[in-house]
Amino acid sequence: MKTPVVWSWIAAFAMLALLPLLPEPIGTPFHIELGAKVAIMAIFALSLQLLVGYTGLVSLGHAAFFGFAAYTVALLAPSSDAGNGWLLLGAAVGASTLLALLIGSLVMRTRGIYFIMVTLAFAQLVYFIVHDTRYFGGSDGTYIYFKPEFTLMGWPLVDLDQPRQFYWFTLAMLALTVGSLALLLRSRLGHALVGIKHNEQRMRAAGYATTAYKLASFVIGGAFAGLAGFLYAAQHGYVNPELLSWHKSGDALLMVILGGLGSLAGAVVGAASFVLLAEWFQDLTKHWQLLMGSFIIGLVALLPQGIAGGVVHLCRRRTPSSLRHAESARPHPDDIDKQALPLSPAPPGAGSHQA
Prior knowledge:
single chain, 355 residues, mainly alpha, two-stranded antiparallel sheet, 14 helices, 4 strands
């Protein structure tokens, strides 16, 4: 990301960090918990944005990694004491990463609608294994009686039982996710992923092992989904099979579409919009899904580029024509420099590039 964009992210996170310190009726426990939920869902949406928005892999099974990580926390956490947060976090992310590697290695040869259906099928397979197995608690799910404990040299580093500290912890994890994905997308791997999205055949002809690159994107997305799953389990203290269902994957996909494809800010904005609108609509009527569906249809009709993309488009229209021509000569700060994609042909005998 360029310097102005970096400072914009820093300013946004700084303002969000002030939420628990604001007086009522804003800085209440309800709003702090809601803010943590938004941050968790934003991490989940960002993990899918890497696949859909930057690699062109539309997955309807992404919730499998989210829910599997949450179940990993629930199964490994002690029932009589707080578990080691570092170990549980590593186990949750590691489990989701391994599951993504296993599923990804099996589905990566498919494309288009077949990829969507196969990812959905594998996610439903994991869902029914969890749903029908007594070890996982069956359809009733299972509880986490104590929040994980994060210590450093024997000293408590963060107390997740405190709503404010939990909110700041989730916000820090969101900042870590945004920073990590931004660095990844500016790297050689990120440029290759965007090149695969726009023209996979050309990338393959240039000597790139596109299947390996897509698998890397799939696994990295699964790892960040696992991070979101860990935070969800720590916040709610309860997990059930619905966390792995295709409905949860659909929610993540809607967040990405709402915010805008191919934008880190779009994933965050889409997650915040989805969570906040769901809370508001549920207060209005028990048929809140009808309102949510109508809103999404109207938004897609009015802003095909999503909320973030629509805002950028409006800002560009308001700029003078001379500045607009200058802006058109360079990419959007939050996007990958598509002109810098490594598409030059590989020299003879160089072999295929690996992820």
